[in-house]
Design a protein that fits this description.
single chain, about 130 residues, HTH domain-containing protein, DauR-like_HTH, DauR-like
C-alpha cells in the first residue's frame, strides 16, 4: 500500500508482518474487492488485505523455507522431513498438486514425500 493510498496507521503497520508472511497484499479500503478482508480500528476501515490464492501461498511458503534453511534440494533427509512436517502443519498438502510441488522443490520423488508424511502420521499416532 503506497503512502498516496492512505495515511499510515499504527494498526496497518502492526499487521504488515503477518500479511507479508502470508503472502498477502495490503490495499486501501476504498480499493477492496469482494474477497478482500477489510480490517477496522475503532469501527473505521484502516486497511484491506488481499489474500493470495492457495497455490501462490504454497510457493510463498517454499520460498520462505528456502530463505531460512538454504537450497531445499541440498538439505539432508532429516531436514527435508522437518520441512515436510512444517508444510503439512500449514496445510500445504490440501492444495491441488501440493505433493508434486513440494517433491519438486525438495528434489525428491512424490513417493518420498508420501513416506515422510506417513512416517510423521505414524509417529503422531504412537504418542
Amino acid at each position: 500500500m503506497s503512502a498516496a493510498d492512505a495515511v499510515p496507521h499504527p494498526f496497518a503497520d502492526a499487521v504488515k508482518p503477518l500479511v507479508d508472511a502470508m503472502g498477502g497484499e495490503m490495499v486501501a479500503p476504498a480499493q477492496a474487492r469482494g474477497d478482500d478482508v477489510v480490517l477496522r480500528w475503532e469501527g473505521e476501515p484502516v486497511v484491506a488485505v488481499r489474500l493470495p490464492h492457495l497455490a501462490d501461498s504454497l510457493d510463498h511458503l517454499l520460498a520462505d523455507l528456502q530463505r531460512r534453511h538454504g537450497p531445499l534440494p541440498a538439505l539432508g533427509r532429516k531436514e527435508k522431513q522437518q520441512v515436510v512436517r512444517i508444510l503439512e502443519e500449514r496445510g500445504a498438502f490440501s492444495v491441488r498438486h501440493g505433493v508434486e510441488t513440494v517433491a519438486s522443490a525438495l528434489g525428491v520423488s512424490r513417493f518420498t514425500v508420501y513416506n515422510y508424511l506417513n512416517r510423521e502420521n505414524a509417529a503422531r499416532e504412537g504418542q
